[in-house]
User: Which sequence fits this backbone?
């Protein structure tokens, strides 16, 4: 597509995305005191991340089986308090291993 | 409470995000070019948006010359969850973060940056956050460029396995805290069940995933805030 056709799309897309992120952070400058809202915000990261992970993680590789292998590895390592990088890397490794076994062994 | 404000620590904490992003943005680069974007356009998309799901959804709309309204509404729905994250993160920001800093930090307030910043004890300062957004931003841009320019050099099986990187990170953030705090564990399990209900119930599965994230997260968090409120300085004074 021509660059000058693309440009207005880029501006709309990035503009909406930025406003959604920027407005709450710029407008919410005081410290919230309300206990319910503080509690709500305490749980938000965990609920958002979990909703994004389950069940989507099972569709993140070419087969739910290799994804489950990676997910299982991630759960065990995270439970043992290994850092982000280790958990992410070994979880990819487990999925790769599972795919290799599925493709070449079974 | 102490403020975490080391640029070096931010850069270091950003490295796992950066590696995950290299994989995901690489995949985005490939799909953008196969959807009709030039390499330069794919790179601009990543540098201006810094979203994964949002960008992926935008490619077919832009490539087919869709309407601006369609594009804007899609982005709003998919990315509205960032509003929740920005509100949440606004409460974690230390005194060193100025108003001008907020305009910059919010630009790269991605799921992963938010998750890592939230996981810190105490507040986070401007230098730490600048470090934390720099490495992922570079990874996101470089990965897109590489995927768009030379997407087909990696074997498919490797790209497939790398798809797990981001989710592995999410697991690494939620599980340790769930182990330490029972209510967090229950909230995570409840959120997962809700999310599966939305995904596998035929009538509900048509709801766009951006909305599903918001509905499930708001419901689960509100429920646990009501029944398992956290201890605050004030509640300790008044409730004790």
Assistant:
């Amino acid at each position: 597509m021509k660059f000058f056709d693309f440009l207005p799309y880029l501006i709309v897309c990035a503009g909406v995305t930025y406003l959604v992120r920027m407005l709450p952070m710029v407008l919410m400058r005081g410290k919230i005191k309300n206990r319910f809202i503080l509690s709500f915000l305490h749980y938000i990261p965990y609920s958002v991340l979990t909703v994004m992970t389950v069940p989507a993680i099972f569709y993140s590789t070419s087969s739910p089986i290799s994804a489950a292998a990676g997910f299982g590895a991630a759960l065990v390592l995270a439970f043992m308090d290994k850092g982000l990088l280790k958990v992410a890397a070994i979880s990819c490794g487990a999925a790769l291993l599972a795919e290799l076994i599925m493709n070449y062994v079974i | 409470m102490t403020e975490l404000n080391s640029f070096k620590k931010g850069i270091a904490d950003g490295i796992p995000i950066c590696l995950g992003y290299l994989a995901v943005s690489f995949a985005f680069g490939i799909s953008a070019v196969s959807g009709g974007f030039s390499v330069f356009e794919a790179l601009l998309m990543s540098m201006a948006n810094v979203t994964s799901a949002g960008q992926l959804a935008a490619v077919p709309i832009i490539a087919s010359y869709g309407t601006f309204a369609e594009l804007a509404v899609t982005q709003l729905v998919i990315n509205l969850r960032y509003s929740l994250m920005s509100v949440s993160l606004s409460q974690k920001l230390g005194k060193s973060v100025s108003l001008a800093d907020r305009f910059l930090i919010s630009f790269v307030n991605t799921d992963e940056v938010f998750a890592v910043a939230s996981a810190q004890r105490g507040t986070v300062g401007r230098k730490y956050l600048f470090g934390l957004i720099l490495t992922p931003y570079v990874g996101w841009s470089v990965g897109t460029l590489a995927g768009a320019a030379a997407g087909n050099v990696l074997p498919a099986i490797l790209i497939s396995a790398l798809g797990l990187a981001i989710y592995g990170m999410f697991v690494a953030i939620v599980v340790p805290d769930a182990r330490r705090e029972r209510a967090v564990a229950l909230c995570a399990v409840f959120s997962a069940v809700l999310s599966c209900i939305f995904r596998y119930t035929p009538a509900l599965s048509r709801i766009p995933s951006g909305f599903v994230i918001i509905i499930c997260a708001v419901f689960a968090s509100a429920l646990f805030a009501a029944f398992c409120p956290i201890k605050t300085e004030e509640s300790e004074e008044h409730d004790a």
Notes: The mean pLDDT of chain A is 91. DSSP finds four helices and no strands in chain A.
